Amino acid sequence: MSQQVRGVVVTAEDAPAEVTTIVIPDPGPGEAVVKIQACGVCHTDLHYKQGGIGDEFPYLLGHEAAGIVESVGEGVSEVGVGDFVVLNWRAVCGQCRACRRGRPQYCFDTHNARQKMTLEDGTELSPALGIGAFAEKTLVAAGQCTKVDPGVSPAVAGLLGCGVMAGIGAAINTGQVGRGDSVAVIGCGGVGGAAITGSRLAGAARIIAVDIDDNKLQTARALGATHTVNSRKQDAVEAIRELTGGNGADVVVEAVGRPETYEQAFYARDLAGTVVLVGVPTPDMRVELPLLDVFGRGGALKSSWYGDCLPSRDFPMLIDLHQQGRLDLGAFVTETVGLGDVEKAFARMHDGDVLRSVVVL
Ligand code: APR
Ligand code: ZN
Ligand code: ZN
């Protein structure tokens, strides 16, 4: 028995994101239907709409979500009906070499729900990042659900499903920021802002925020930056060096995803420092670096995929810290909106005046 609910769908490149009726099948083996309570609006949703991720229209948008498990299919043991869960992009297999070596972040055989949600006429939907959570309900693989404490607000919990986790994870998991470190974060949107928060959490002594927008730098201070640099007005590399006793930062997080900011990150790190690329580049982008500088500066050049997170470890931990008052995830929720407001949220995102708009159902 399938059911019909409302969801936000884009039918063709640059067509408006519209609320329409979608059909959700009963969960099959290994699947779950989740009643969505909140879902953050992320740049990736906009990229789907613009055709920047693929052309498998129609897309069901939304992927930073939390909700309640409504039903589960055969053989599901990860979660049960009534559980409050945060969704992640992909369930891991638990069997491949990466999983067996304790690095499921790099699982070779991740999966989403095997059945398809559809439009009323039977057209199959492509759910954004295998989730599709701008909807009253969605169908996912049970392994995409991580049970967390139901005492936290869904708007806050959902953020861990993507950008905020990516940023916090870039600092604490990938960058391994430690007590007393100096950290520079280039790009202070939702992801960079979360990297600042993560660095503070990890005990960094100095957190230098770099952006081209003074409003973002102000937000960065509220999130824990100790120093700010507007790289339109100042040379970012020189400013970071100056603020770190001439050395450069122990960890530099690049949260823009552009060649020029990556180059800044490369030269702003201390000898033997770490550069973490968490901003997502486009396929045409190239950086050219003198190999002697790569050799001579040592350290580590890393990339951070989904904040190198393990949902089952990191989601409950971060929610715990939030509830204890040691991590303010609420600071990332700029506004809450309705299911019909996704287009408006895209426009505000474009204007750059929000960290996150969150659709609340
Ligand atoms: N130098 C410094 N900061 C810059 C520059 C630049 N040349 N260009 C843009 N920025 C800043 C913007 O002013 C903004 O504050 O980078 C920030 C980007 O933030 P958002 O647009 O909110 O993007 P966010 O959601 O944080 O994602 C950042 O990570 O996940 C990826 O696809 C995402 O590549 C994107 C990046
Ligand atoms: Zn996202
Ligand atoms: Zn695996």
Summarize the structure.
By secondary structure, the chain is of the alpha/beta class.
Give a description of the structure.
It is a single chain. It is built from eleven helices and 18 strands. The chain has helices at residues 43-49, 97-100, 154-159, 163-174, 190-201, 214-223, 236-242, 259-268, 291-297, 311-323, 342-351, and strands at residues 3-10, 18-24, 31-40, 59-60, 64-72, 84-87, 118-119, 126-127, 137-141, 145-147, 182-186, 206-211, 227-230, 249-254, 269-277, 300-303, 335-337, 357-360. By secondary structure, it is α/β, with parallel strands linked by helices. Helix 8 (259-268) links the parallel strand 14 and strand 15. Strands 3, 5, 6, 9, 10, 17 and 18 form a seven-stranded mixed beta sheet that branches. Strands 13-12-11-14-15-16 form a six-stranded parallel beta sheet, with helices on both faces. Helices cover 27% and strands 26% of the residues. The chain has two domains: 3-161 and 328-360, Medium-chain alcohol dehydrogenases, catalytic domain (Quinone Oxidoreductase, Chain A, domain 1); 167-305, NAD(P)-binding Rossmann-like Domain (Rossmann fold), CATH 3.40.50.720. The longest helix is centred in the last third of the chain and has 13 residues, at 311-323. Bound molecules: adenosine-5-diphosphoribose and zinc ion (2 copies). The site of adenosine-5-diphosphoribose (APR) has 25 residues, from helix 4, helix 5, strand 12 and helix 8. Belongs to the zinc-containing alcohol dehydrogenase family. This is S-(Hydroxymethyl)mycothiol dehydrogenase.
